[in-house]
Structures are given as C-alpha cells and as structure tokens.
Sequence to fold (913 residues):
Amino acid sequence: MSELIIPILVTGSITALISLSFQLILRATGGIFDFALGQYAILAGMGAAFLSTHSSLPLAPVIFLSLLLSTIAALASETGAIGPLTRIYRNAGAFGPVLGTVALLWFWEQTARLLFGDRPLIGDPFWKEARFSLGSVRLSGHQLTIILSTLLIFLAAHVWLEYSRSGRLLRAVGDNWHASEILGLNIRKARTLAFLAAGMIAGLTGVLAVPLAGLSPLMGVAFLTNGFVALFLGGAGRTSGPAVGAFLLAAVSILVSRYLGVAWKDYLVLLLALLIFAVRPQGIIAPIRKRPG
Amino acid sequence: MLIIFLKSLRRLGGPFFLVATVAYGLQDAVHTELVILLYVYASLGLAIYVPMILTDQVSLAYAAYAGIGGYSVAILSSRSLEALWGVLLGMFLAGLTACLVALATRKLSGYFLAVGTLLVAVAFGRFLLQQPDLTGGADGLTFRREILNIPLSRTALLVAGAAMIWGIAVLVQNLERSDVGRGLFLMGGSRPAAESIGLNTARFRILSLVLGASIASLAGSLLAFSRGLVLPDSFHLELAFLILFIPLLGGKQTPWGCLVGAAVLVYVLEIARSFGPGKLLYGLGVLACVLVIPEGISGRLRIFLSAIEQWACRGSPESVLVSSEGANLSSGRKALPEGDFERGVEQRIEKGRHHPLGPANEIAAPLIVRNINKTYGGVRALQDISFDLLKTEILGIVGPNGAGKTTLIDVLTGIQNADSGRIVLGGQVLEGAASKRALAGLARTFQHPQLSMELTVGENVGLGLLRLRTPRSWAGMTLLLIRSMLSFAGIRKPRKEELAIKEIGQRVGLQNPEEKMINASFGTEKLAEIGRALISKPSVLLMDEPFAGLGKTEIDRVINAVERWRLHALGVIIVDHNIDLMSKICDRLLVLDSGIAIACGPPNEVLAEPHVQKAYFGGD
Fold:
C-alpha cells in the first residue's frame, strides 16, 4: 500500500494544478470553463521536451519559454474568442461559449500537432540525481519538486485571491459581473489576470508532467476531464477545493487501476462524474455559494 | 420566373443535392465511399442538430453513439444474427446512454453535459479496446454486408443512405416547424418561459438528447454497412469534435444545412490528407463561424436568397395582396383616440368601487397563499407571505425595489422553490416544477420579456396554446414528439389557431404578427408576451411589470385585455412600480417591504397608511 502514496501524491498534484487553473477562470468569468486549458499544459509540456532535446538551452530558459507559450495561448484564447463569446452570447445560454471553448480545444490541439507532432515527447526530469526516503516511502527529486511546487502554488493562489487587491477584484467580477460593471471595476483587467495566471499554472503543470510518462496532443482531453471532475469533487467555492478533489480522484483512480485494471479507471471517472453531477454538483467540501437569481 | 426559381431553390435544394450526390457516388467505389461518408456526417449533424439547435445542448458523445450503432450491427451480424436487430439495438442502447447522462446533468449548465458526454466517449473508446472478445479489440470486426438476407450493393447503399438522410431531415424539419419544436426553441433561449407555457423542460431536454443519440446510432450503422468492418478508430474522439460543428457550419435555420456542413467537413478532411494545417484551419473556421456568422453558411445563404426574393417581389400582385391584408388587419384594430385612456381609467375606478374587495366578501378565494418563506443565504427575501386572490379580482403587488415582488411571482409560478409555505389553486395544492403549475392553470409574463427571437411575433403568441395540449406523462410527451415529427400539419397552422392568434394580437395591440421577434421593439416584446399568456386561457394570470416600457395607448390596450380576461378567469396578479396606475386598475393592493407583507386592501386605504408611506417615501 505504501508504494501507492507517492503516485497518488504526484498524480493528485498534477490534477490539482489543472483544476486550480479551471477554478481561476471560472471565478473571474462567473461561469466559463475553458476547455482548452489542458491544451495549454500540452503546449508547454511538449514545448519544454522539444526544446530540451533540440537545443542546448539551460533549464531556466526552457521553462520560461514553455510557460510563455502556454500563457500566450491562454491570453490569445481570452482576447480572440472567450471574451467576444461572453459578450455575443451574454443572454443566450451556454451554447455559444461551450461550443466556442470546444473549438478552442480543437484549435490548440491541432496547433500542438503541427508544432511538435503526434507522438508523445518525454522531457528530462528535474533534480535528476536526488533520491529521498521517509520510512518505507521513497521518492525522486522530480516527484518532490512536483509535490512542493503544487503546495507553493496553492498557498500563493490562496494568499493572492483572499488578501490582495487584484485577487479581490477577480472574485468580485466573477461573483457578479453586472454589478462590477456598474461599479466601474476593471473587468478586463480581472479576466486578463485570471487567464494569465491560469495559462502559467497550466503551463507549469505540463512542464512538470512531461518527464513522468511523456505528453502528446491528444492527452489534453485527459487533463480537461480530470481537472473538471476534481474541481466538482472538491468544490469550486474555495481555493482548497481543487486540491481536495484532485487527491481524492487520484487515490481512487490509482487504487482501481491497481486492483481492477487500467480500463476501470476511465469507467470509474465517468461514474464518479455522473454521480457528483447528479447528487452534489456544488462539491463535497466547498460548496458554491447560492445567490438570488 | 426568378421568384419561382428562388423559392424552388430554398424548398428543393436539399433533395436536389441528395439526388446529385447519388449520381456522383455511382461513378466508382472511391466516389461511393466519399458520398457514404458525406451521408454519415450529415446524419450525425442532424443528430446533433436536434438537441443543439432546438434545446441548446452541446453533447460530445456522438462518435460514441455512432460507435454503439456500428458495433451493434457488426456484433450481431458476425454472429450470424439479423443485422436489422443490430440497428434497432444500437438505437436503443445509444438512447439509453444519452438518457442516463442527461438525467445526471439535468439541473446543470451546458458545460456539465459536455464533460459528462466527453467522459462517455473516452470510456467507450477504452471499452472497445479492452473487450476484444466482444468488439475484436484494435483489429475490429468484419461481417457480411446484408440486411434481411439481402446483400447490400453500392447502389443499394447509396439509395438507402440518401433516403435515410432525406427521411431524418424531413422528420426534424417537421418537428422544428411544429408547436412543440417552437416550444423547444423557446426552451433553448429561456427555460423559465418554456416552463411557464407548460413544457416540462427537463423531460423534453432528455427526449431531444435521446432522439439525437438514436439518429447518431443509425449513422454509425450506415458506416458499418458501407465497409463491412468496424474499427475503434472509426469512432474516435476526434470524430466527436469534427462533427460537432456540422450544424453550425451548415446553419441553424434549417436541418438541410447539415448537408452543407457535412460537405464542408468531407472537403476539409480530403484537404487535410495532403495539407497539414487543414484541420487547424477548420478549427479557426468554426471559431470564426461562432463569432461572426452564428446563423451558419446555409443560414446566411437563406437570408441572402430571401433578400433577393423580397427584392424580386416588389410590385408583384402577391406583394399587393400582402399589403392589403396588412391594412385590413390594422383597420380591424380600433385605434384609441386621445383622451380615451383617461376616460377608460375613470370608468375602471367607478367599476372598482363596486367590485368586491377583501377576504370578508362571500366570493370564494380560488388562489390561497399561506406562509410563504424564501431565503437566499442570509437574506430573507420573503417572510410569511399570506394572501387570497378572489374570483375575478385584480390584485396588485407593490413595494420598493428589492421588496421581493418578483421573487413572490417566481415562487408562486414554481420558477423558484419556496423554503416553506402552501399554495392552493382551486382546491388543488400547487407544488413542484413550473410546468406542472402552468398546466394547473397559472400563466405569467416576465419583467424582461422572454421570447424566442427566432420566431415571428404571432408564432410567439401561439406558443401559449401549448399549455392547453401538453401531456403530463413521459409516454404522452414521447408520443407528442413523434406525432410532431410525423405530422406535416405543423407546416401550416390550423385555421382555428390562426384566428386565435389574430384575435389576441388585435386585443393586445400587436401591429404586425408576421414581424420577426428579433426586429421587434421592446413594447412589442411586452405585448407579445402578454398575448402568449392570454391565449393559453389561464385560471390565474401573473404579470411582472407589464407596463414598463409601454406607451399610453399600449397600456390602455393591455388593461382592456386584462379587464376582459378577468371575467373568464379566476383572477389576475400584477406587479408594477406605477403606483398611480396600479391604484386605479387593481381591486386590492398587497404592499411588500423587505420581504414582509406590510399592508393589503383597497388601494386608497392601503396607500393612506403611514407605514406604507414610510416604506415608499422614507422619513418617520
């Protein structure tokens, strides 16, 4: 059993980061899920793997350029598609934005294919030589980097959203877009900040994930579904929600894969998602606050 | 000649296109495969069209549903069982899967359905690979291409495919043009409005998704028959993304547009074989379509053809006929001379003096509301609200902004659920969904008109008639949906309904029932919504700010219509800010302040009470 703890923590961390990116955009836009988020992670992850194998650049510029790529993709999506979609379909249901974000997912998937090819690319792990052990639990330097990075990013996101001026702006805009507009709050700034942060976090997720088992353009969908389910398993109302949901999902998935077979992981995620959607869509831990319609 | 040609092009373009594709496909095996692929994509587009265009639902499992259809045929045929059973089994299983996902996401936004169905597609792909005994694994399954022991030749496949597309397109078109189809359009734009005319939106949403899944399964069966082979790659997730945009590319104006969308997709895939960024450009094209031409390619084409047709019609005998009909319609309505409004109000004041007021009257109260409470988090929006609506009474609900007036209407009509309390209409306890309450006899209008912008003013008014014939049971709704698809009567409205729409239109003062709602003024929107409520002959009519945005003449018409209606109905409840007007037309006023009923009685008495004046004007 103890040998499963590290895989659960590592897989949970990767899912938690993507889920956090979802949450940031959800909170800033008041209800939009950017389906292309997984693709930003793929762009950065494959970009990092590509640069590290095809250039002699040191690690820091490779990470910087990869994050730049995912952030540009996120901001371009907001400026070129999601922002206009929100305005055009403001009073017309979710049809336009859902279809638009699915089109974005397709667009960035095809971009990743054109840039890096169809085959999975595997990156170099960070802190390669380091090995740690805590009792019977052993972990590599790369695994420790993933866990610690996740912890730091969640702490930073919490502090930013709860205690900073721009974090409050982001929450206010997401909570009531119309009132924020009347109050003269800078809605564009709030949304840009959210997409900037989400693009960077998604990019970092890709950079951290690519040395584990490699990434290919088609894997963006897995990031999307796992991140989405984790967000609603934990609850979208608090910053801790994505982390709780992600670690729970990772634990269940890894245990099921181990004891029932890999195929059961996909069936289980489907069943779990349908169960949450049907019974408790507001999440297990941190419910979304209701407000008058 | 030009007019006839343009009309024929609009009406017969789809069938003509199908005949042309059969002729094209008959050339050789390569062309046949290309045309069959076009039919498969077109039928998948039609499968998506029903829930996406009519009810605003985006599902990503259509490749999986097609796979269910294809594999059902292959599995049964490869075991020497009749392939036709495979077709039917596939439709059933795909429908069942769609039903389960729709049930799980029934109260959630479109994103949840999209993700739920995406997970179905992922799990289905995994299932195909992990169950080789049943599905053949990565190698797939081969089988004999025959149905009812008749081998399927290329010609037979092409004709069957074309007939299938024609059949599905006609059925979907019939549904779209029927009252139920129009109701579904309304549902896509506003669920509360659809519920208010008695449509059980949750059930119709599920039915539309099941219908779409069954059509997709049929498309999968056609693909399997065309190749005599099924492979997991044929129903890959990529297909789900590619086909999703067919109705959008084709246009949401007509199901025949799916043929255009499918043709674009087949062309793009052919280009993508030799030109790498082909699929990337497809994604960009789709985004551009969503952002710039939401009506799609064929939709834009139809608008263009209509414009030419209108231009060509100038001065023709037909246009003269239309103009004279319009003039008659206008002359049929009596325009009120200046000063009539004030006189009408005076008469009503006089009438109001003799009207039975207050619960002490002997007339029984048909709507009884007791101890309604509603909270939002820490805010108590309604606190212990109780009142009776007397027979033929007009009850006004007034109060400052945020007093809870609209919330009360929402709670009464079931758009929102009360935390506690009891509502009794004609001896029957009202609870549950808004559609159930609408069928029990409540009709309402909204503060901001909620109409289908795709329809005309008259068609929007006619939607109210659905309240009179929408069934309550699952079986009844399914039958209604099937009947709407099979009935060509939906294309031409029965004379009786036309007259009802015309009469209500004249009564509330709708100038041009043929006008597209999207081009109509705010005042027309308000009047159309009132017409939609009145035509459904409700027992109790609830109106949320009906006079906001209307001119004097329009207000007077609405009052006249309501006055006339009250004699046949159990009563009318009006919420409005115009205190002067409300005190003149209402028999009693219920005053709300911060969710509490602070006064109820005849207008002059209620408005004279100091605590009512304090609530309105402040001060001690």
Observations:
- Chain B touches chain A through 55 residues (CB under 8 Å).
- DSSP finds 27 helices and 14 strands in chain B.
- The longest strand of chain B covers residues 379-389.
